[in-house]
Design a protein that fits this description.
- The chain is mainly alpha-helical.
- The protein has five helices and no strands.
- α2 crosses α4 and α3 runs parallel beside α5.
- It is elongated.
- The protein starts with a helix and ends in a 17-residue tail after the last helix.
Length: about 120
Amino acid sequence: MKLILAVLVLVLLVETQAQWYHFPEQAFEGARDMWRAYQDMRDANYQNSDKYFHARGNYDAAQRGPGGRWAAEVISDAREAVQGFARHGNSDAAADQEANRWGRNGGDPNHYRPKGLPDQY
């Protein structure tokens, strides 16, 4: 019985540790997903669509795995911190962060999609 338990613990430990090398790739791909959402937001230039693109970028990045989720969180928090210096009020920052968390936690980005946004986005 002890042998079975030891083997089970070893397998779980090795499997968990074997995934560490994917983290940098996931982070890079996640950062690229965030950049693509930003570029699409600028390209769309559509009123009231920023929350959708926040959610979509975070969602796509988080789907890459722990590295992508980490990259999405770091990029989102850094962006909001930098923009916080330029804003006089933080009313939009809280809504942006809510959309960021929604996407990172697997929520459908279309929840924030404005009516009339072209299908290409």
